[in-house]
Amino acid sequence: MRKILFVCLGNICRSPIAEGVARSVIAREGLPYEVDSAGTSDWHKGEHPCANSILVASRHGIDISSQRSRPVIAADRERFDIIIALDRSNRSDLQNMGFAEVYLLGEFGGYGGRDVPDPYHYPDGEGFEKVYEMIEKATEDLLKQFAK
């Protein structure tokens, strides 16, 4: 069974959405994966995902409300065989922590390696929906690519 870890900075908005989407696709398609998410920082350790992430996931039929933020730990290098960073900064942090092969989520779904942006950086209030849509498309593609 392949084990995937999705990683963003605080593990309260983007990576919990990615984990939730992946779990949904895995259940629907019967794919052989285990997934988790974590943050490169411990700023929000033990907290639930932010309210906007819970809301946008819920609108798409995914419940991420029971997830809890956790920081990446050294044991994750051995536990997970696929490490997915949500942006280049996260990837750099992971590489500095000794993770050898780290993919960007934006390498999947036809996004040309783009970063999944922080949803709070959108000025129009639509950031969480736009980020959700990007995460969903890229995650579905990622799961298909690694299932081969």
Helix content: 25-40%
SS content category: alpha/beta
Give the second-level CATH assignment, the architecture: 3-Layer(aba) Sandwich
The radius of gyration computed from the alpha-carbon positions, rounded to a whole number of angstroms, is 14 Å
Total of helices: 5
How many distinct folded domains? 1
**Order of SSEs:** EHEHHEHEH
CATH fold assignment: Rossmann fold
**Beta-strand content bin:** 5-15%
Name of the CATH homologous superfamily: Response regulator
| Unreliable stretches | none
Instruction: Determine the mean pLDDT.
Output: 94
Number of strands: 4
Commentary on this structure:
The chain starts with a strand and ends with a helix. The chain is of the alpha/beta class. The chain contains five helices and four strands; from the N terminus they run βαβααβαβα. Helix 1 (14-29) packs across helix 5. The chain is globular and about 40 Å long. The protein is 40% helix and 14% strand. It has a single domain (2-75, 85-147), classed as Rossmann fold (3-Layer(aba) Sandwich).
In short:
By secondary structure, the protein is of the alpha/beta class.
Helices and strands in order:
Elements: E1 2-8, H1 14-29, E2 33-39, H2 51-59, H3 76-79, E3 82-85, H4 88-96, E4 102-104, H5 127-147
Parallel strand pairs: 1-2, 1-3, 3-4
Helix pairs in contact: 1-5
List keywords for this structure.
148 residues, alpha/beta, Rossmann fold, four-stranded parallel β-sheet, 40% helix, 14% strand
